[in-house]
């Protein structure tokens, strides 16, 4: 057992954190509202090679990618980090001329994403990064397809100001791979796990914002943070944030090891991180009093994102049913097992 | 990053597991249930025969010099099986403290017998008026010629009825500040003037009130400096090695139980509401385990987990208390049947677990104490008041 980051991972995280502090300030996050995409940030991330990390001979494993996603979450990065990394892993896994050509386009700057849910009547709803992605990878039966089109560059108005769009997939589609449903499921799992990591970042930063505020702000002649009801809730949240981060990293390790528990751990990490993120952001907002409700303070940005990121995947409540299927056998078939 | 244990630790775990399969018998469990003592001499001596009471101690002190991760693997196995190792934990904690703070003579007298499983040592810290605030102890020790005379009363002295010694916290200087007038003694339990009164508990475990009336001990029974008891206690705290609360076995047993049809209908596991709650329990079991393993890993790499150990204690205790009520609720009316009813689910183990779990957020530093440590030391929040 070794829970330390490797020196090269520490460096990567530090470099990324420095870049995001500059290029993804909360002012910039606000400025990107509407589309949920900041072209200058994306260009900066491309310059340091973030979208390329998941492919090639020295591809980073899930263990490194969750570190990147956590940083993206901390800074509410308005950039399709999770989508491009998950798509790159899928194309790498599929291989073959079509996937390679798509990967080459991505290397030249095209944004690729996944349609997480099966399209209905040719439309994929609320595709993550769908507002800015040129390539949408989808799964039709056992076939993985790619639909290329000029991105709408307009997002569906949404709770988290995310670059979501409904995408028409009825146009000409390339077949990326056949009989590879499992690869697409793994890509969805990667997206889910990286989103869980983003949520850990959201939760961790929300906690810091709350703690900084209650240390300074005084009411009734003393700091808000000296009230036990406040301090004890924050202590519970600090514990949960650490737990969520460990769970995300364990799930990533299981993915890299090909451990059969990987899918279950990723679902666990997603459920736990999603619930904790909205709980800690909500309490941090609450501890700001009325100011937390104003758009001027940053905590509301985190609260929105904590609620919005997981919804792109679906209801967390429903996800517990899928987790139960993974852990205890599918519903209806468990009797006698 | 690597979440797997090293090969030595896994090998040791397998060895411990096999040994426990052999020695943690239904008879041992029955004895523990009947007496309420969270200790069993047969099991204790069986573990001592393998040298595992001091598995993590340095070899020069009679231990096996095992790594913190090997120790963690052993403790996970013991906890997972709910082995009655309270006596072992307390005894070895005090023995380790004596090794650091006791006299040459005391070390020679106590340590080999502790390692060999011959003696038990109980903890005489808590008093009725003080609760978790152990530094407020009022039990007096007064100089009397070459020795000391002790008068007072302690509560929740678990295993006093089995112990050979009590590690007793006394006040030697009532004038000094609360933490500065305390002294520790290692007192033989057969010293005249010691009276043990049992306290029955919700969990069925026995604990005790112990009265000390004119108890005479020589100065050689003192551990550490006069009025230096708090420092000795702090030393003891650093030896309180991290354990890992691993409830995966409890969850497995619960899942097995809810696969069976209930009296009034189909198996609960087919019900989405039950499935969600089981899945939530599984997440909490995993998180508790990871937080515990993190503390062990910090120790294994030479650090001292403080906030991290509090986080594990807090999360594990709180989730296990929740677990214990959810668990019975999932069983429905069947959850009511207690030990002794032949139709009780898992022989009444779930009902017992429900009654036992309530203590977990109280003992060993209550959840409120843990939250305060996390808030102050971890988050830098100001003290209340």
UniProtKB/TrEMBL annotation, chain A:
A Pfam entry, by short name: Acyl-CoA_dh_1
Q: What is this protein called?
A: Acyl-CoA dehydrogenase family protein
Keywords for the protein's UniProt record, in alphabetical order: FAD, Flavoprotein, Oxidoreductase
PANTHER family named among the record's database cross-references: ACYL-COA DEHYDROGENASE (PTHR43884), ACYL-COA DEHYDROGENASE FADE28 (PTHR43884:SF20)
Per UniProt, residues of the Acyl-CoA dehydrogenase/oxidase C-terminal domain are: 193-317
Taxonomic superkingdom = Bacteria
Q: What is the lineage of its organism?
A: Bacteria, Bacillati, Actinomycetota, Actinomycetes, Streptosporangiales
InterPro entries to which the protein is assigned, alphabetical: AcylCo_DH-like_C, AcylCo_DH/oxidase_C, AcylCoA_DH/ox_N_sf
From TrEMBL, chain B:
Q: Where do the Acyl-CoA dehydrogenase/oxidase N-terminal domain residues begin and end? A: 7-118
Query: Acyl-CoA dehydrogenase/oxidase C-terminal domain spans which residues?
Result: 228-378
Q: InterPro entries in the record, alphabetically?
A: Acyl-CoA_Oxase/DH_mid-dom, Acyl-CoA_Oxase/DH_mid-dom_sf, AcylCo_DH-like_C, AcylCo_DH/oxidase_C, AcylCoA_DH/ox_N, AcylCoA_DH/ox_N_sf, AcylCoA_DH/oxidase_NM_dom_sf, Mycobact_Acyl-CoA_DH
What cofactors does this protein use? Answer: FAD
Write the record's keywords in alphabetical order, separated by commas. FAD, Flavoprotein, Oxidoreductase
The record's listing under Gene3D superfamilies reads:
Acyl-CoA dehydrogenase/oxidase, N-terminal domain, Butyryl-CoA Dehydrogenase, subunit A, domain 2, Butyryl-CoA Dehydrogenase, subunit A, domain 3
* Any single Pfam family the record assigns to this protein: Acyl-CoA_dh_N
Occurrences of domain Acyl-CoA oxidase/dehydrogenase middle (ranges): 122-207
Q: What family does this belong to?
A: Belongs to the acyl-CoA dehydrogenase family.
Q: What is this protein called?
A: Acyl-CoA dehydrogenase family protein
Q: Which species? A: Actinocorallia libanotica
